[in-house]
From TrEMBL, chains A, B:
InterPro entries: Tscrpt_reg_PadR_C (IPR018309), Tscrpt_reg_PadR_N (IPR005149), WH-like_DNA-bd_sf (IPR036388), WH_DNA-bd_sf (IPR036390). This is PadR family transcriptional regulator. It holds the Pfam family PadR. It comes from Mangrovactinospora gilvigrisea. It comes from the Bacteria. Residues 90-170 form the Transcription regulator PadR C-terminal domain. Residues 7-77 form the Transcription regulator PadR N-terminal domain.
Amino acid sequence: MSLRHALLGLLDTGPASGYDLMRTFNSTLSAVWPATQSQVYTDLNRLAEAGQIRVAAEGPRGRKSYEITAAGREELRHWLLEVAPDGYRRNDVLLRVFLLGAVSPSEAREFLRQRHAISGRHRAALEERDAGTDWDDDPLSVYGRLTLEWGKRFMTMQQEWSAWALEQLEKAPPHT
Amino acid sequence: MSLRHALLGLLDTGPASGYDLMRTFNSTLSAVWPATQSQVYTDLNRLAEAGQIRVAAEGPRGRKSYEITAAGREELRHWLLEVAPDGYRRNDVLLRVFLLGAVSPSEAREFLRQRHAISGRHRAALEERDAGTDWDDDPLSVYGRLTLEWGKRFMTMQQEWSAWALEQLEKAPPHT
DNA sequence: CTCCCACGTTCCAGTATTGACACGTCGCGG
DNA sequence: CCGCGACGTGTCAATACTGGAACGTGGGAG
């Protein structure tokens, strides 16, 4: 459902083709809302049918440059401010943790050690990306920086949590 | 894909009916991996077809008590320890933040204030749930406590982040 | 003893998402 | 001037997920 809103949001910053949008999804947005190429194109067509975007210009190899319409802006605004977010749902790492009783305590500890290491790596990668980007003061840059910071804090939290969880398990292993 | 593994994991702790599993999903597990009733029942049938669970007993009103089989335990173990988790993907709150340039700076700030408040409420609710549970030392209790702690830390992180983000916006509002 | 609610399962239509395949074209490096 | 890699779009089948409806039953409260 939200892919269409993501597309509206991107088009709100200026016209773009499906291909352009695709690339944005595969780079910046993939961590927050992944999408495949087929979905992007089908949803663009649906948005056009719904009159929320329109083909502004056709370019070289069948390229269609889309732009957002007034109705699209309306819908985007509504979704941003008035539709209650789902929030976080569906976390397959946490699901595994919950079910870790199915393996031995030492395997469970190893699992947590792995998570600790992985969170650290992700955190470092985000740190690097932050440092390697020259942030501007345009909206996408400002709000992009906020989401990146969220990611860094998230990874830090996970790292601290897994260290803590490991301690807990060493202190009081589950009684079978 | 993971729903089936969640079911296997729950059945690994003892036999249960679809109805029982449903209830577990609607209470404990809903925050980590939501599932509707129809999905639970269809996946139970598929697991049975695949020979990973089996009907252990039939009860009163057509009740089927399922138990995990050796093949099921094998699959569960494999998924837990050898399949790389997706980790965190798809966050519609963060997606909104990223696209917040579509509304006015003051509306964006209001959005963050809302998130701050909501995170606080969720955190309090988890805190309360923690205090109101008498934790045992059986696996589901031990690992359940770890996931609950993750939730608390997540909410705390979000609260701190939104306060920080708000500050950033006040300090340097996006330039249109 | 009766009624109602919780127990219990199944089916279905619609949408979302994935992954792959198919197909055509501009443009530039060699 | 030729080929190939990037540009660019579309379609399909399969699976995941949602929301709702339908249907039947046992057991305990009154």
